[in-house]
Each structure stands twice: as structure tokens, then as C-alpha cells.
TrEMBL record, chain A:
Pfam families per record: SUFBD_core
Biased composition annotated in UniProt, kind: Low complexity: 9-32
Gene name tied to this protein: sufD
Annotated spans, Disordered: 1-48
Protein's GO biological process: iron-sulfur cluster assembly
Similarity comment: family membership: Belongs to the iron-sulfur cluster assembly SufBD family.
Family annotation (InterPro entries): Fe-S_cluster_assembly_SufBD, SUF_FeS_clus_asmbl_SufBD_core, SUF_FeS_clus_asmbl_SufBD_sf, SUF_FeS_clus_asmbl_SufD
Domain annotation SUF system FeS cluster assembly SufBD core: ranges: 167-392
Protein name per UniProt: Fe-S cluster assembly protein SufD
Automatic annotation (TrEMBL), chain B:
Keyword Iron attributed: no
Keyword set, alphabetical order: ATP-binding, Nucleotide-binding
The protein's name in its UniProt record: ABC transporter ATP-binding protein
Record-linked Pfam families: ABC_tran (PF00005)
Cited SUPFAM superfamilies: P-loop containing nucleoside triphosphate hydrolases
Domain of life: Bacteria
Gene3D superfamilies: P-loop containing nucleotide triphosphate hydrolases
Molecular function per GO: ATP binding; ATP hydrolysis activity
Keyword Metal-binding: no
Family label: Belongs to the ABC transporter superfamily. Ycf16 family.
Residue ranges constituting the ABC transporter domain according to the UniProt record: 4-249
Length: 443, 282
């Protein structure tokens, strides 16, 4: 499944499925997905190694809020095979502390913050776990942090979490709800120590425009597993941004369901994996409703021995999603030897009546010709590298929409580069791995 | 008065088959304010000379010197050479995604001068140079060379030449691929730089079309990695009428000698790599 990447820089390898071409594959109705239904599975139904025929269609993956419904992962399952599960075993199936940890947030008009019980109607409104670590958190949390967005003028709301401790394995649950026609920007900032598995539910009601940014600037030893579930309503729009810079193992998996007609999502991600860091993101875009639109763009830089990034982008265009317009891409920039970037786009199309669906993935090393060009203008090698990497990642940072946060993250990315300049030797041949594209059309 | 002196320069280039000798003893002396045209057939080593002067990591100086006012350039890094006053206008400028022309120019100017340029005069300088090169003001906010046409890339090179004010500029086939209007605009830019900063120019070209707009003081015919003949501007006219055939034939005997020398070089080139030549580019 993996193949050595070209050592040249980012020659984009892209592919798009035109509506006409996809029409040729139009299929009879498929069984509907169970992502919001009651758990119907038993242990034997779990996706992965225990089945003779693995579940191929993303919508048919088993879901349950109960940790007991999932088998202990062996590490061969599709959702775990690229994750160092030994390092997160306690979060997957161990006992978790689900007590509340108060975040820091300055009050802003148009946003409210409260702790709600497990039976609150906002809980389970956006999705259910597809894997055991997510279900473990769901089973263990005490109260959910509810963030309600009600304002109609764009402002920003920053919720900070820090000092969760490195001794206790924790569970957390957050529900973010954007009321109809509201406008909001919610930034979740994570720093300090942590061992945490959590779920974040995001509901964007009709006509609302919401941006949710999750920033991981954890300490070096932190471990963080997160599943985000989003429902985007009629004519609503969700911009979802994952920024992962710090932490030992950080895995943030957003599943965005475009469940309302004319719904829209833009899912962006930025990661910078240093030596020994594992940064993973599995993005799932589920086109359920007609005329829905999605754009996915994740960009990452890798440097140092053992730096590992994983990007999996699943896009499902259901039979019901006529007029879908979808595009996803992942770009990796390799800055030193000894890194590994897994990049796996998957596209499932169940209807031919779409505007477009495409994907692209590339993993390339730092371009010597760019370096030469900049240096030939007097710019030092370190400065030249900084310019190029900053330029590469700026595209994502600029999507956040908060000047102060953008500025701070730009500096954080530069700080990562300084670590590189001090530590790693200049890039030579790398072990970059680019998983090739798996485009499947379900029959 | 600065002088750029190239003495008995031998240069090899990395290829998939190993190191290949391209320059075989180049001698040139360029004084500030002078324009030297280097003309020659394809494959004669003209661009190799340009890259070797700038310090591209793929090109290795096996012997000889590049001296700027007596200071050895061949041991300096690419950026140090630029800061010393050398400039290369590239034949194929690369794209730098995510880096705007404005940001790039300011960063380069700061690096060359050792301090940031005073903001007001800098903006004025950039604007007036862009206007003179008929570059739309939207260029400033575009990413360096990204989506630029061939002519736009060349104008962007000359913009940098005007703003960075080097002592010596190597123009590597800056005229190639330009229509006559763009050729005039680019040539005017070079002439402005010459009169404003007493720039010394090493103008590498395949055709003498550009010499109608940039008058050379000296013309050198480059064949098989060496200067085969030097003369005044009249030599360019003669080349236009007669082509390079005569020189290529005249050096046929030399070429044979070179071919056998190449075989020997290839063997010693391998040895040099095995010995751990530090400049080998992975």
C-alpha cells in the first residue's frame, strides 16, 4: 500500500472524477449509514481483523457510544494500523478520569459556556464513536462542556485548556452548537501536559456560519486522541481547522456530515512533526444532502528522526447527495532524513449526478533549486528555509480569521523551524512515504 | 573600481553517470562598468560558467579561481557571494510558493545590505523600478514567479538586479524566449543599472539580438568550455554572419584531445567522489 515517494518536491498528483464519468458508475440505493442510528453491532461486527470481509464503505462502519461494544484493537484495524497503539493503550481501553477540568475563557457576547449532563439533548446530536478510544471517552465523561454560539456578528471566542497533567488518563466531551443564522469563531487552545481522549460534537444549524479551530501546542510528552463529529445544516457552513504542533502522539479525527441541503464545509489542517512526534488526522467528509460542498486541505512539514505524520481523507458522496462539489488534498514538505508521511485519500461515490469530486496528495522534500535561488539573492540558508516553510504553511494559518491567533501561530511555526536549524542536518534523501490514492466507487 | 577575475577555471557537473568536466580553463577579467558578452553554441558551457560563478551546488570547481577584488569566491557559500556583490539573472527562475515578491525583495535587500532598507525610500524604489519594467503593481503581492509568464519571470529578475545593486551581474540567456517589446524593456533595465551603479555585466547569450540594445565592450566566443576568441563588438556581427561553425571546426582537433581527456577525467572524477568530495549534492 505504501510506495516510496519521489524525492522531488510536490509534483501534484491529482485526479478528478467528472460528473459524466461518475454517472457511468451510478449505483442502486445502498444501505443507509448508521452513524446516527442506535448501536446495532455486537462484538463480532466490529470493523477490522475479526471479520472475514472488512467493511469497505465508510458509512457502514460500526458505531457505538459504549466502550464495551468494541474489541481491543490489535493494531491491524484500518483505523489503528498507522497509530502507535502501545503508547495510547490506556486511553483506548483503560480507566479514565472523566471529571470536569475548568477551561479558561474570557466572556464574549454571543457565546455561552456551561457544563451539562450526559442526558442533555445537545449530547449525541452530531455523531457516535467509530473506534474504541472515542467510545472509551464517551463512556467515561462526567459532564459535557457546552459552547453555544448565538451571536449574529462575527467575533471570536477562545477556550483554553492547560495543565491536564501527565499522570492521569482523562476523558472529556465538548458540544459546540451554532444557533440558526449565527456567526461564530471558536478557538480551542490546548497546551501543557495531557493524557486525554475526548469527543467534540459540533452542530451548525441552518444558515449558521461557524469556524472551529483546534490548536494542539501540547508539551513534548503529551498524548491526545480526539474525535470531532459535525453536522452541518441547511445552507450552513462549517470551517474546521486543526493545528497540531506539540505533543508526543496527537490524533485528531474530524468527521463532518453535510446533512442539510446546500451545506458547506472547509476542513483545513496544519501539522509540524518533529523528531519522535506522531501527528495523525483522519478526515471524513460525508455528503448526505443535495448541493453540498466540501474542500479539504491539510498541509504538513516533517523534520527529524522518527517524525511521523498520517493523513487519511475519506470522502463519501451518497446516493442522496446530488449536485455535490468536493475536493480534498494533502501536501507534505519533508525537511530532513528519517521522517515518514502517510497520505491516503479515499473517495467513494454513490451517485453520478455531481458537480465534481477530486483529490490530490503529494509528499516532497525541500527543493534545492528554491534554496539556491533565495541564497543567490544573499539570503542565508536558514532564512531561506524559514521563508519557504512559512510560505508553505501560511496558506492554512491565514484561514483562521483571528489576527492575534494567526500571528501567534506563525511565530510558533517559526519556532519549530529554529529547532530544526539547531538540530537536524540539511535535508538529503528522505524516507518519505506517500500512500497512493485509493478511489473506490461502491456498487 | 572593482574587478571580477576568472582564472583558469575548471568546472565539473554532477550527472547520473558521475562528474562531467565542462569548463576547461576559462580566463576572463571584467572591470566594473564593462559589459562582456559571452557567445557560443549550445553545450559549450556558457550556463555552467554562470552557475559556477553563483555557486550552484551541482557545479564543482576542480581548479582555478573566481576573484572579486582579489577575494576568492569559490570557497564562499552562495549567499555570501551574493552579499559580496555578485548577481545571477537566471535562465529559468524557480517558483517560491507562499512567498510574495514584496516579502522576498525586502528580505533579500536586508540580507545584502546587512540592515533593513528605510521603508519610505524602499517602497518608492520598488514602485519606480516596477513601473520602469512595466510590471503591474499587483506583481508585488503575487508569490515569487508563481504563475508568471516567461517574460514576467525575466522582468522579475531584472527588477531584483536594479534593487539589489550588485557590483557584477551574470545574465544567463536573459533574452531567450522574449518578444521584441519585452527584450527592449529588459535591456533598458540592464542599461539603467549600468548607468546608476556602474554595474559590470557578463552577458551570456546564444543570439546577438540583445546586443542591439545592450552594447558590449567585449565579445568572447565560447567553445568546448573555453574562450576560443575575444574581440570587440564587431566580433558579434561577424558571428551573426558566419555562425560558430568555424570555431567548432577549428577546435575539432582540440575536441578530440578533450574527448580523451574526458575519459581520464571521468575516472579521476569517480575517485574524487569516493574520496568524499564535500560539495556533492545528494
Amino acid at each position: 500500500m505504501t510506495s516510496p515517494a519521489s524525492t522531488n518536491t510536490t509534483a501534484p498528483e491529482s485526479e478528478s472524477v467528472s460528473a459524466a464519468a461518475a454517472a457511468a458508475f451510478a449505483t442502486p440505493p445502498a444501505t443507509s449509514g448508521g452513524h446516527r442510528g442506535a448501536p446495532v453491532g455486537s462484538k463480532s461486527h466490529t470493523d477490522g481483523a475479526w471479520q472475514e470481509i472488512p467493511v469497505q464503505t465508510r458509512s457502514e462502519r460500526f458505531t457505538s457510544a459504549n466502550v464495551g461494544d468494541f474489541d481491543e484493537p490489535s493494531g491491524h484495524e484500518i483505523e489503528w494500523k498507522l497509530t502507535p497503539i502501545k503508547l495510547v493503550a490506556d486511553l483506548i481501553s483503560g480507566d479514565l478520569d472523566g471529571t470536569v477540568v475548568e477551561p479558561t475563557a474570557e466572556a464574549v457576547d454571543g457565546y455561552s459556556l456551561s457544563w451539562v449532563s450526559r442526558t442533555d439533548e445537545r449530547v449525541s446530536s452530531a455523531g457516535l464513536p467509530e473506534e474504541k478510544a472515542s467510545a472509551n471517552a464517551w463512556s467515561a465523561f462526567d459532564k459535557a462542556l457546552a459552547i453555544d454560539v448565538t451571536g449574529e456578528t462575527p467575533t471570536e471566542f477562545i477556550v483554553k485548556r492547560s495543565g491536564l497533567g501527565s499522570d492521569t488518563a482523562r476523558a472529556a466531551h465538548t458540544v459546540i452548537t451554532a444557533e440558526p443564522n449565527s456567526r461564530g469563531l471558536v478557538i480551542l487552545e490546548n497546551s501543557g501536559d495531557a493524557r486525554i481522549t475526548e469527543n467534540v460534537e459540533i452542530v451548525v444549524r441552518e444558515g449558521a456560519h461557524l469556524t472551529v479551530v483546534s490548536v494542539q501546542e501540547w508539551n513534548d510528552s503529551a498524548v491526545h486522541l480526539a474525535s470531532h463529529f459535525a453536522q452541518v445544516g441547511r445552507d450552513a457552513s462549517l470551517r474546521h481547522i486543526v493545528v497540531s504542533l506539540g505533543g508526543s502522539v496527537v490524533r485528531v479525527n474530524p468527521s463532518i456530515h453535510l446533512s442539510g441541503q446546500g451545506s458547506n464545509t472547509e476542513a483545513y489542517g496544519l501539522y509540524f512533526a518533529d523528531s519522535g512526534q506522531h501527528l495523525e488526522q483522519r478526515v471524513y467528509i460525508d455528503h448526505e444532502a443535495e448541493n453540498s460542498r466540501s474542500r479539504v486541505k491539510y498541509k504538513g512539514a516533517l523534520q527529524g528522526e522518527g517524525a511521523h505524520s498520517v493523513w487519511v481523507g475519506d470522502v463519501l458522496i451518497r446516493q442522496s447527495a446530488n449536485g455535490t462539489d468536493s475536493y480534498e488534498e494533502n501536501r507534505n514538505l519533508v525537511l530532513s532524513e528519517g521522517t515518514r508521511a502517510d497520505s491516503i485519500p479515499n473517495l467513494e461515490i454513490e451517485t453520478g449526478n455531481i458537480l465534481g469530486a477530486g483529490h490530490a496528495s503529494s509528499t516532497g522534500r525541500f527543493d534545492d533549486e528554491q534554496l539556491f535561488y533565495l541564497q543567490s539573492r544573499g539570503i542565508s540558508e536558514e532564512e531561506a528555509r524559514r521563508l519557504v516553510v512559512r510560505g508553505f504553511l501560511a496558506e492554512i494559518i491565514q484561514q483562521i480569521g483571528s489576527e492575534a491567533v494567526e500571528e501567534r501561530l506563525s511565530r510558533a511555526v517559526e519556532a519549530e523551524l529554529m529547532i530544526a536549524a539547531a538540530g537536524a542536518a540539511p535535508a538529503a534523501a528522505s524516507d518519505a512515504i506517500a500512500d497512493d490514492t485509493d478511489a473506490t466507487v461502491t456498487a | 573600481m572593482s574587478t571580477l577575475e576568472i582564472k583558469d577555471l575548471h568546472v565539473s557537473v554532477d550527472t547520473e553517470q558521475g562528474a562531467k568536466q565542462i569548463l576547461r580553463g576559462v580566463n576572463l577579467v571584467i572591470k566594473q562598468g564593462e559589459t562582456h558578452a559571452i557567445m557560443g553554441p549550445n553545450g559549450s558551457g556558457k550556463s555552467t560558467l554562470a552557475y559556477a560563478i553563483a555557486g550552484h551546488p551541482k557545479y564543482h570547481v576542480t581548479s582555478g579561481s573566481i576573484l572579486l577584488d582579489g577575494e576568492e569566491m569559490t570557497t564562499l557559500s552562495v549567499d555570501a557571494r551574493a552579499r559580496a556583490g555578485l548577481f545571477l539573472a537566471m535562465q529559468y527562475p524557480v517558483e517560491i510558493p507562499g512567498v510574495t515578491v514584496t516579502n522576498f525583495l525586502r528580505t533579500a535587500k536586508t540580507a545584502i545590505d546587512g540592515s533593513a532598507p528605510p521603508i519610505r525610500t524602499w517602497i518608492k524604489d520598488v514602485k519606480s523600478s516596477m513601473t520602469a519594467l512595466r510590471m503591474d503593481s499587483t506583481f508585488a503581492e503575487r508569490n515569487v514567479n508563481e504563475g508568471f509568464s516567461g517574460g514576467e519571470k525575466k522582468r522579475n529578475e531584472i527588477l531584483q538586479l536594479e534593487l539589489l545593486k550588485p557590483k557584477f551581474a551574470v545574465l544567463d540567456e536573459t533574452d531567450s524566449g522574449l518578444d521584441v517589446d519585452a527584450l527592449k524593456i529588459v535591456s533598458e533595465g540592464v542599461n539603467r543599472a549600468k548607468s546608476n551603479t556602474d554595474l559590470g555585466v557578463l552577458l551570456i547569450t546564444h543570439y546577438n539580438r540583445i546586443l542591439r540594445y545592450i552594447t558590449p565592450d567585449f565579445v568572447h566566443v565560447f567553445v568546448a568550455g573555453q574562450v576560443a576568441e575575444s574581440g570587440g563588438p564587431e566580433l558579434a556581427v561577424q558571428l551573426e554572419n558566419e555562425g560558430y561553425d568555424e570555431y567548432v571546426k577549428a577546435s575539432a582537433a582540440a575536441a578530440a584531445a578533450i574527448a580523451s581527456a574526458e575519459a581520464a577525467d571521468a575516472a579521476s572524477g569517480v575517485a574524487a567522489v569516493a574520496a568524499g568530495s564535500p560539495a556533492v549534492n545528494a
